[in-house]
């Protein structure tokens, strides 16, 4: 998705609110960009409501353009469908587009999603209440993209250009849906790590956490087993003031623990984030991390699960510090925060509470986490408490067709074997023009990152296949456009 965002909002610690935070809003937690790039920033007047006529206001949608390699009229446009965060972060971290721009002679456009970054429909009031948030939806965002592209193609130099939608995670979902809903606007879509089936009735609610567990199982001997037994160890130690003090010291926490649940929810999110960014080289996507960070984490958890609680949790603390303090620069760890601030946490909360209902559950048997069932009613009640709205559980299936996508065309669905979001992805090609690309050693949208000397062959092959298909789409679009003249 891109990958997960910096959350400053502190919620109450009920199990269901934690489920809301950790299960549904972890798709993209941006950190510092790995590479600086050169682009120009523009703003476009978008309608606040594309589907009604009472709200006639407009807002400034930010978009970024890089045309260094776009030297010929009619050359293609690679259009990034912005995620739930600041578009500059995605621009800086979607290296695939920058790597292929010269080969394709492509203009790069990165469009910011409404209600994120600087693209606020009601300015400072955009998040003030449900009335102002009412226009935050994937449907409105897709319409923004379509209208923006229509504007960009008003020039004779671009009006015949093939537009290829590209996105990762939620942005990948949008890229796929963009091609489905607006096939006359985009010639094709690369949807990387796009869990378009992570919705009610489409996949098992436990698949996400089973993949996380598998990653740690492969990471080292006893790694997942020790995490599995750590939850009860935390319960036991946190039952006394002395135990809470010991845990606070051992984990180098900035503030003393008052209950074990806070630590457990923080650790659960940590293990998930590590699974998503288990890249084969040093990276700075969510946090500064070593190559294959799960293997490094698991070096601290190789002992027998039968060790005493304090010895066990001492290893868990060292493992967690690989994620939060690999550089050794942090003086303490803040368990109320798990990422940085480039992502709009509250906006994604609202989207999950309306249309992006993604069931998640654990059973403690097939996964290494404590059992937690999916309770839609409890989730709905939390949403109503926060926003005064209730989710429409089946809306994604109604709006985008669920698994009935075979009638669509020209979409690449790429997924990685290490990425927990792949459980909700399209893993088999539904047709000749809906192509599933599998990357066994790939974490979250590894194929959208910059080329790296440590990339596994599987991701290099995936990128080569993706570029070859995109070239075909561009030729098809050119031929179709020529016939219309």
UniProtKB/TrEMBL annotation:
Keywords: Carboxypeptidase, Disulfide bond, Glycoprotein, Hydrolase, Lysosome, Protease, Signal, Zymogen. GO terms for molecular function: serine-type carboxypeptidase activity. It catalyses: Cleavage of a -Pro-|-Xaa bond to release a C-terminal amino acid. Residues 1-19 form the signal peptide. It is found in: Lysosome. GO terms for biological process: proteolysis. Belongs to the peptidase S28 family. Cleaves C-terminal amino acids linked to proline in peptides such as angiotensin II, III and des-Arg9-bradykinin. This cleavage occurs at acidic pH, but enzymatic activity is retained with some substrates at neutral pH. PANTHER family: LYSOSOMAL PRO-X CARBOXYPEPTIDASE (PTHR11010:SF38), PROTEASE S28 PRO-X CARBOXYPEPTIDASE-RELATED (PTHR11010). This is Lysosomal Pro-X carboxypeptidase. The lineage of its organism: Eukaryota, Metazoa, Chordata, Craniata, Vertebrata.
